[in-house]
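Milestone 3.1: sequence recovery, worked example.
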């Protein structure tokens, strides 16, 4: 890749490289986007672009306080107990003179997170409700690998218990919970190599049994209650031995959280708790990048990690014990990157397979953490850039995709962006790959993860990173260069935030680097962009290639095209008007879809700029401007 003097974030370095200072670095250069844009703008004679000059004002980087994720300090006796338990010695060997306690729960947890009342009522009516799709409980295959991934996580992780608890009174819900639980136990009498015994699912299942124990242990059948208590103990022992075999780090964290929770709440659980706390701290230290983003780069995984820690902290509260300090430290790291992906409506952006999860759910989650902080604007390691101006919010994927071992529903979205103004989303990504199997058909899952499902540039309809099955990603983007600056203006005009990034995903096939420059004016009324294809490597540069720039639109936007075909007027639901202008090629309007927070696919449209360009490189300039 051409050396432009920018810091390079590689796919492996993105997880562990130390945080780099804000730039520009000495010797970096400014691209002439402002001059180019001014040459084909303004959009009408009365409108002139504000002068943007003097890019010497540099946005400060965010300092990180590195947390200590060493195992908790213990006395000699507790260290010996932990060592003995890790070696597999039974409780009778650790405390040979103590009478073994009866298998029982010693405390009841107050659930820290509310469920979905609609899903709870559906459960009482005999249906699982997953991402807007109702599936009869009686027709659910509780064993074998036949469930869509969202249903697997819901059914085998018993995540539906939270919804059920929110869907009625304790008396109304207990019988439903016991009936589903009995069916599941009958279908899964012992561990087997199916998704039911995936470490992540087992961790969630055991943790949910602990938190919602009154739903599964309050029935009148004493025999069932005794069987359930022994199932909890057997599951915890299985997890003790297999937690390190999780598919990814987040699944391992779920397993460790369940082990610690069981040690906290079950009688004679101290050895397990000590063992689990040491493992949890190690796993947490490897869960996130230096700026607090999980290694999968998925906001859904970010939410899951926060939910796990909030739930575990509630187990400490149940026994009036001080939680591990690393739990609070990790929550303080996890929340700011999640906030960075929120739009003006308070909902989540559509990144790495996520849908636009509503503001209410995000607010409840953040409130449960007790963390008060601001969004992280410049997450170099997690890979997302955020810029705000007036009512405008810009989100930019300026990082390589997650490596295969961390990816969940991984998407080839490098250099895609989303843009909102107030409560309205103008430019979005399709999203929803993680919800496929609900209202979004499974057959669309691969397509929703493709580069073309994101607001960025594609060459010959190839993905910038190969999209494989089971949410994994193949070869493609391995390095992303990022340069972020604050531009000050001459005179009384507004300044701007300028973000430039490039990736090498098309170098191997075409010998071209994709570089994107975005400039957001400080009043939020204008977003200028330039996409460049820059020669790199030794590939031949003869012939032509097909290029498409896609700008997926938010829902409920009315469109009108200009007479010259290079402009499109966007009428937003609030009555405001925006105009999109292409600098050199015509703009076409095509069908698209957008996944909302309930996993529902909403029909929408996309603006597409297509061209045949030489393999020697080309540039495309465009503008999105508020007219009224």
């Amino acid at each position: 890749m051409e050396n432009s003097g920018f810091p390079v974030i590689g796919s492996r370095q993105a997880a562990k490289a130390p945080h780099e200072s804000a730039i520009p670095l000495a010797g970096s250069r400014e691209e002439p986007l402002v001059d180019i844009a001014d040459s084909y703008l303004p959009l009408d004679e009365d409108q002139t672009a504000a002068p943007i000059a003097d890019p010497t004002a540099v946005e400060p980087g965010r300092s990180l306080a590195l947390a200590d994720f060493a195992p908790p300090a213990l006395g000699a006796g507790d260290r010996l107990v932990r060592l003995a338990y890790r070696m597999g010695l039974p409780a009778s060997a650790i405390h040979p003179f103590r009478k073994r306690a009866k298998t029982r729960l010693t405390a009841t947890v107050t659930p820290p997170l509310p469920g979905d009342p609609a899903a709870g009522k559906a459960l009482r009516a005999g249906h699982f409700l997953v991402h807007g799709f109702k599936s009869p409980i009686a027709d659910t295959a509780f064993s074998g690998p036949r469930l869509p991934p969202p249903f697997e996580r819901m059914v085998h992780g018993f995540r539906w218990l939270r919804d059920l608890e929110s869907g009625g009174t304790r008396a109304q819900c207990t019988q439903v919970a016991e009936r589903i639980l009995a069916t599941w136990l009958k279908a899964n009498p012992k561990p087997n190599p199916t998704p039911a015994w995936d470490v992540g699912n087992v961790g969630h299942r055991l943790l949910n049994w602990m938190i919602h124990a009154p739903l599964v242990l309050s029935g009148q059948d004493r025999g069932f209650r005794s069987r359930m208590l022994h199932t909890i103990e057997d599951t915890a022992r299985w997890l003790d031995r297999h937690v390190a075999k999780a598919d990814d780090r987040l699944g391992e964290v779920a397993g460790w959280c369940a082990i610690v929770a069981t040690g906290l709440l079950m009688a004679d659980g101290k050895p397990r708790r000590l063992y689990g706390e040491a493992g949890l701290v190690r796993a947490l230290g490897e869960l996130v990048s230096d700026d607090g983003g999980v290694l999968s780069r998925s906001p859904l995984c970010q939410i899951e990690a926060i939910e796990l820690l909030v739930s575990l902290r509630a187990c400490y509260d149940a026994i009036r014990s001080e939680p591990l300090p690393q739990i609070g430290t990790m929550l303080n790291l996890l929340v700011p990157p999640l906030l960075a992906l929120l739009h003006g409506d308070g909902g989540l952006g559509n990144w790495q397979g996520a849908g636009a999860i509503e503001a209410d759910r995000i607010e409840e989650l953040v409130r449960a953490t007790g963390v008060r902080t601001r969004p992280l604007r410049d997450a170099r390691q997690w890979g997302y850039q955020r810029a705000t101006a007036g009512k405008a919010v810009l989100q930019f994927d300026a990082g390589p995709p997650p490596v295969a071992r961390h990816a969940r529903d991984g998407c080839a979205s490098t250099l895609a962006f989303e843009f909102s103004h107030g409560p309205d989303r103008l430019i979005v990504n399709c999203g929803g790959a993680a919800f496929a199997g609900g209202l979004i058909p499974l057959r669309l899952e691969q397509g929703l993860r493709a580069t073309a499902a994101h607001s960025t540039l594609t060459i010959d309809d190839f993905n910038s990173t190969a999209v494989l099955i089971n949410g994994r990603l193949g070869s493609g983007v391995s390095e992303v260069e990022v340069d972020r600056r604050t531009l000050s203006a001459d005179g009384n005009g507004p300044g701007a935030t300028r973000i430039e990034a490039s990736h090498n995903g098309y170098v191997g096939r075409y010998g071209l680097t994709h570089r994107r420059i975005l400039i957001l004016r400080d009043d939020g009324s204008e977003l200028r962009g330039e996409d460049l294809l820059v020669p790199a490597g030794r590939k031949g540069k003869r012939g032509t290639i097909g290029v498409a720039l896609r700008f997926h639109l938010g829902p409920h936007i009315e469109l009108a095209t200009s007479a010259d075909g290079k402009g499109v007027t966007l009428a937003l639901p609030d009555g405001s008007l925006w105009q999109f202008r292409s600098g050199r090629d015509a703009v076409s309007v095509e069908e698209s879809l957008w996944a909302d927070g309930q996993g529902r696919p909403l029909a929408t449209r996309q603006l597409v700029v297509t061209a045949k360009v030489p393999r020697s490189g080309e540039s495309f300039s465009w503008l999105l401007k508020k007219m009224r």
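The first strand starts at residue 8 and ends at 10. Residues 108-287 form a domain with the Glycosyltransferase fold (CATH 1.50.10.100).
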